[in-house]
Specification:
Elements: H1 5-12, E1 18-21, E2 41-42, H2 48-61, E3 78-88, E4 92-104, E5 110-119, E6 122-146, E7 149-177, E8 180-201, H3 208-221, H4 226-249, E9 258-259
Parallel strand pairs: 2-9
Antiparallel strand pairs: 1-3, 3-4, 4-6, 5-6, 6-7, 7-8
Helix pairs in contact: 1-4
GO cellular component, one term: extracellular space
Pfam family, one: JHBP
Keywords: Signal
Length: 261
């Protein structure tokens, strides 16, 4: 259960991210709430990966209400105060600041498969998930250079992503503290495949007709750019996501979620 936060955090990484979310105050947990104890998994269970999948899916299904007993806040909609994104490649370079972002639809994610394995103190978790729709709304400000032409923008946006298929791979290590085991994320990989993406935005360009034209261009051409942008931004978003994962995970012992033999 402790790793159910992984899914939503890495989805946020789709935007490429150095982000500032509303600060969370977590409490130390040494046992699962009574209502969740039946969802704990056993290390010797031949169907351990499926047990973990069911627990994570329960956490995702609860994104609209939260689960205070395991520090899981309401995440659908998920509010992010600020995102800063810097990028550079042969086609485009610049900086984008996004503020007051709301992400709707995370609770609709379905975990299709989990592959969890442990060797000594090394953990590997692979997740395959489908997300029918994400709607991301907020305000933007950007300075971008495309083919030596500088474009500055400020306005609002709505980005609708449909049929998102994601493969997440986490490499972690186990460490001990005060007689309990905890997981520490070391590395993650994020492989998204987007069915469709539609942008609505104002303020990209001062002239409304030109603004609409560039929005149309983005909606027609996004497939050429989005995976490149994610890869280029990885040095920014990966450390930020790992830091947040480890902060959350430091409050929930691994061995109350996956019970020892």
């Amino acid at each position: 259960m402790g790793v159910n936060v992984y899914t939503f955090l890495v989805i946020i990484g789709l935007s490429g991210l150095k982000f500032t979310a509303s600060q969370r105050q977590y409490k130390q947990i040494f046992e699962l709430p009574e209502s969740l104890k039946s969802m704990a998994c056993r290390e010797d269970d031949p169907a351990l990966s499926e047990c973990i999948r069911k627990g994570l899916q329960y956490g995702i299904d609860s994104f609209k209400t939260g689960i205070p007993g395991i520090n899981l806040p309401v995440m659908d909609p998920l509010h992010i105060d600020k995102v800063s994104y810097q990028f550079a490649n042969d086609l485009v370079k610049g900086k984008i600041n996004l503020k007051n972002i709301d992400i709707k639809g995370l609770s609709g994610a379905k975990l299709k498969n989990i592959d969890y394995s442990r060797k000594g103190n090394q953990l590997r978790t692979i997740m395959d998930a489908d997300i029918p729709q994400l709607v991301i709304e907020g305000n933007h400000r950007a300075d971008v250079v495309i083919n030596n032409a500088k474009i500055s923008s400020k306005g609002s946006f709505t980005l609708t992503i449909t049929n998102l298929v994601v493969k997440l791979t986490f490499h972690s290590e186990v460490y001990e503290r005060d007689g309990y085991e905890y997981g520490r994320a070391l590395k993650l990989n994020f492989e998204p495949n987007v069915g469709d993406m539609k942008l609505k935005a104002d303020g990209l360009l001062p002239e409304p007709a030109l603004n609409d034209a560039i929005v149309d261009f983005i909606n027609q051409s996004w497939r050429q750019f989005y995976k490149v942008l994610i890869a280029d931004a990885r040095p920014t978003w990966e450390p930020a996501v790992i830091e947040l994962l480890n902060e959350y995970g430091s409050y929930i012992p691994l061995d109350i979620v996956v019970l020892k033999n």
